[in-house]
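Problem 3 from the worked examples.
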Amino acid sequence: MSAPNLPAGAPELVAAIEAALAARPEERILRLSHEGQSLVVKRASDQTRAPWVTWIAARIAGSLSPQPLPRQSLALSDQGGLIRIEARRLRSLHAAGVKVPRVLAEGAGWLALEAVGDTLEHARTDRPRQEWDALLLRAMDDLAAFHRAGHWHGGSQVKNLMLWQGEIYRIDFEEDIGEHLSLAVAQTLDLVLLVNSCLLLDDRGEAAWQTMGEALLERYFTAHPAADIRRCLQRAMLWLRAITFLARPWRHKRGRSLRRVFLLRRCLERVLA
């Protein structure tokens, strides 16, 4: 539980955080406790996206929107600025009633948030498959409701969904690309990211995961039958087909990430047909 009497940005909290950051310079994410409050402190990352990932993201986003996108947003190159963007977005979403962690403090290159449980991805380790699948379907319901309310995430993946006190919370709002896109395009990217991140999370096999992927997409569109998002997906399929065609020689040599892309294509083709 949160400690409601701990004021955000209290000087003693900031001092404790800065002392911990100085003592643990090698850690980007720190879990701390201060006066009964569990919190997570994030440093601005010094890592950027790989050039090939940035290129693919630019092509797909460009196919969905005629508006040019800032390269530094696609590459995640302005990490200090993105930390400030995340703080602003979290405060705005929290004020709107969205389940996100409260911002407790921020400083030069860091952000402190209330701790909100474990990731949805971690939840699969101690749950039977049927219960885990139900959680994934619930995550799609949650995304649909989030989108119906007019929001976009930018980092909508199972690793950025937390299970806390029986509720799903969203974390990681460093992405600012949605601020340069129409809402429909930003929400389409959310949907693609979430479905893609769910695929191949266990060893049930690609055929079973294709069935699950299709069920996830159908669940979303049942809860949020957004024609503009369907149109965005249909346009994105042109690039997805081109990418998978070019990547065929490496399909079984590049690990799970590339296999997910091929599987995502099959799921989308079936649901959009």
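Problem 4, a separate protein:
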Amino acid sequence: MKHNFFVVFIVILILISLITCNSNLNRAEIDRRARQVQEEIRKKEEKAKRKTQEAIKQTFIEIPEDEVTKQAKEKRKKQLLNEILRINP
């Protein structure tokens, strides 16, 4: 019995709060706000997609090597070539 009374009391409180709620939103206003939210979500998704695409592009762009790096690469290639020639006469 107490449980039923509690449930009825909660339902009455909810109904009172809904009735006294100062809600001036009509259907058109709700739809307009929903479209705004959808548009914001779409824009955020497009922005995230652009950022991801830009990051992917940046990973495939080669970074120009400076002269020291080029010389170090050439030196390492020569060392490896000499080692290969020494192993396989």
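Solution to problem 4. The mean pLDDT is 79. The radius of gyration is 35 Å.
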